[in-house]
Amino acid sequence: MLLLCGLGNKGSGYTFTRHNIGYLVVDRFSERYRLPVTKKDSGCRVGTKEGLILAKPDTYMNLSGGPIAKLAGKFNVSPDCMIVVHDDLDMDLGRMRIRLGGRDGGHKGVRSIIETMGTADFYRLKIGIGRNPVVPAEDYVLGRFTPEEAGELADIIDTACDALKTFVDDGGAKAMSLFNKRPPV
Question: What is the pTM of this model?
Answer without folding.
Answer: 0.95
